[in-house]
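To: structure subgroup
Subject: Chain for Friday's discussion

All,

I'm putting the inputs and outputs inline so they're searchable in the archive.
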Amino acid sequence: MYLLDTDMLSRLRPDDPQLRERQERIAPSQIATTVITRIEILLGRFEFVLKAADGDQLLRAFTWLMRSEELLRGFPILPINDADAAQFDQLRLNKRLKKFGRADLLIAAIALAHGATVVTRNLRHFRQVPGLQVENWFD
């Protein structure tokens, strides 16, 4: 299974040729994301709507929110379960990961618990997690 992280998913476009190529080689059921990524993407969109300075910005922000929700509906979203929570607790004990962002640590924990590969542009960061498989599909 491949889990798209926030950075990767927020850059996807359904008509992207690189995405189409990957989807032809990988069963769609094997490409998912996490509830953490969903939270991060929608939180940013909600904030943009609430902070709109004028009507044009409000309409643009709302359009982006709707597009993001539509994009997220196209992927299975893994929730947090007991195995993910246990893996998160283990990763938190690793002193090398103290500066690792909380959301990325949660994504890594979910990926490890599911034996999944994290698809990200942030290889340098995620490669610090022992045993975590990472790929960058676009760069």
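Points worth raising on Friday:
The beta strands are 2-4, 31-34, 77-78, 117-119, 133-135.
The CA atoms of residues 20 and 109 lie 27 Å apart.

D.
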